[in-house]
Design a protein that fits this description.
- The protein is elongated, with a radius of gyration of 27 Å.
- By secondary structure, the protein is an alpha/beta fold.
- It contains ten helices and 17 strands.
């Protein structure tokens, strides 16, 4: 799983989460290795079994009140018990609490960053988990075009020059939205959800042979672009092969695997006269029906079997 440093986390999220570094600047290179967070209330009471030290620790009202009530020597023992873990990345004080003097001393001693925010623990935890899951998600880059067709994320793949960008351009003209062209960065989020987006420097641009680079946002407007989208259907464009048997009924479901996630796949043979944009639209609508449990080919096949069995 990818890792990030506390320094990177602070640099990227300090403005959004209103985070400030109180002390422990020497610990900014510490690694955040998991996307979960923890509130160490139980550990403060002395129960250290299964303590997840590798998580970001959030101190809320109950934890802060408990620490404030402890005698000085017990407070020192309690904090040292937590801060002595080498894998501990950082501690965040919620609700803009003022750090206790012993907190400052021990965080400096163990070189563990102590951060503070005005947010409450629950929304803070939600924001942290969403950010960390995205940063630490398994990722890959694919050659293709990602478009949102009727709200369904469709990844067009195929050999170079097969017509992926031209098909996507026609889809945009028909009112659909471009997400990424040429290189699609894919991340796997929790639950096996695949999210695709374009590279930052060329986002919302397309390369069309004979025309060059096209700025889709400038040509069509902001309503025809998306920064990212789920990948819910893969359509593979390939040259028509007269000797190959292509799907004619649709009884068999085909899948491809991206980052160990199975994604429905449709193979569309390309030859002159076929309107690929319309076929992609139909494939997208058909997949939306399947997502809702409506399998046209299977239902027709069952009706035919019933009719034949009655004769």
């Amino acid at each position: 799983m990818p890792e990030i440093t506390v320094g990177t986390f602070l640099q990227e999220k300090s403005e959004d989460l209103k985070l400030e570094l109180i002390t422990g600047v020497e610990g900014l290179p510490r690694l955040i290795k998991v996307s979960e967070i923890n509130r160490p209330g139980l550990a403060f009471t002395g129960y250290m079994e299964h303590f997840p030290a590798e998580r970001i620790q959030i101190i809320g009202l109950s934890e802060y009140s408990y620490l404030s009530s402890l005698a000085p020597e017990i407070l020192t023992e309690t904090l040292e018990r937590i801060l002595s873990y080498p894998s501990l990345p950082c501690v965040i004080l919620a609700r803009e609490f003022d750090p206790l003097p012993e907190m400052l001393r021990l965080h400096q001693k163990f070189k563990i960053p102590l951060l503070r925010t005005g947010m409450k623990p629950s929304p803070l935890a939600g924001e942290l988990i969403f950010y960390l899951e995205d940063k630490m998600a398994a990722s890959t880059s694919l050659h293709g075009v990602l478009v949102s067709v009727y709200g369904l994320g469709v990844l067009l793949i195929g050999n170079a020059g097969i017509g992926k960008s031209e098909c996507a351009m026609e889809l945009v003209k028909r009112g659909h939205m471009l997400v990424a062209d040429d290189v699609v960065e894919v991340r796997q989020r929790s639950g096996g959800i695949l999210i695709g987006q374009g590279e930052e420097i060329v986002r919302h641009h397309m390369e069309v042979r004979g025309l060059g680079i096209i700025d889709v946002r400038s040509l069509f407007g902001i309503g025809f672009i998306l920064d990212q989208s789920k990948i819910e259907l893969v359509i593979r464009l390939e040259d028509w092969d007269a000797n190959r048997e292509y799907e004619r009924v649709g009884l068999e479901e085909h899948y491809t695997t991206i980052l160990d996630v199975k994604v429905p796949e449709v193979i569309l043979p390309v030859r002159p006269g076929r309107n690929l944009a319309v076929l992609v639209e139909i494939a997208s609508l058909n997949q939306r029906l399947k997502n809702r449990g409506h399998y046209t080919a299977q239902q027709l096949n069952q009706r035919l079997i019933q009719i034949m069995s009655q004769r």
